[in-house]
Specification:
The protein has one helix and no strands. The chain has about 220 residues and is mostly loops.
């Protein structure tokens, strides 16, 4: 007989954390109020945070592999150096989140609000950020190989020095984005908007549908 998994009591979990416990694999914290708490270094892989409030939390270096954050409030949270491989973030609010040097390989961040998020040096290889808003985000030096940015918004985003090899950038908005030094080999910019975008070679494009991959054609 299938039994529904019991919801984890957030107060008890925080007490266990304060007592030195760090293993909370598979915790069910759906809808939990956890704003401003400290769970840095915890193992919460496979945990469920759907519709929870984690705004302003300290999650530095924590493991959230395969965790779910659907419709979760993560505004201003600190995920620096966190492990978020295969994590799921559908319709989540991640404005101003700090994901510097985090591992988000194969993560799904579909239709999320990532305005002003910090992805500096993060690993987003094979991640799906389709339809998400990354306006003003910092992706400097990030690993974006084979990432999907289809119909995403990266207006005024900083992608300087990022690796976009074989990325999908179809119908993507890159108005005034900075692509200086970005690797775009095999990158598809079909029908993307690049008005006033700074290209990898430092030139600024005026044609809003210009394909920067043409710069490297023989």
């Amino acid at each position: 007989m299938n039994r529904q998994k019991a919801t984890t009591n957030p107060v008890k979990l925080l007490n266990r954390y304060a007592a030195g416990e760090r293993n909370f694999v598979g915790a069910d914290l759906k809808g939990a109020e956890l704003s401003g708490v400290n769970l840095s270094g915890a193992n919460l892989s496979g945990a469920n945070f759907a519709s929870a409030n984690l705004s302003g939390t300290n999650l530095n270096g924590a493991n959230f592999s395969q965790a779910r954050f659907d419709k979760t409030n993560l505004t201003g949270a600190d995920f620096r150096c966190g492990i978020l491989k295969l994590a799921h973030f559908d319709l989540a609010d991640l404005r101003g989140i700090d994901l510097e040097s985090a591992n988000l390989s194969r993560a799904v961040l579909w239709d999320c609000n990532l305005k002003d998020a910090n992805f500096k040096g993060a690993d987003l290889s094979k991640a799906d950020l389709g339809r998400s808003s990354l306006d003003g985000a910092n992706l400097q030096g990030a690993n974006l190989t084979q990432v999907s940015l289809v119909e995403a918004f990266l207006n005024r985003a900083n992608l300087a020095g990022a690796n976009l090899t074989n990325a999908l950038v179809n119908e993507t908005y890159l108005y005034r984005a900075d692509l200086r030094g970005t690797i775009i080999e095999g990158c598809n910019f079909k029908d993307s908007y690049l008005g006033e975008t700074i290209l990898p070679n430092g030139e600024t494009v005026s044609d809003k549908y210009y394909d920067p991959s043409c710069v490297f054609e023989d």
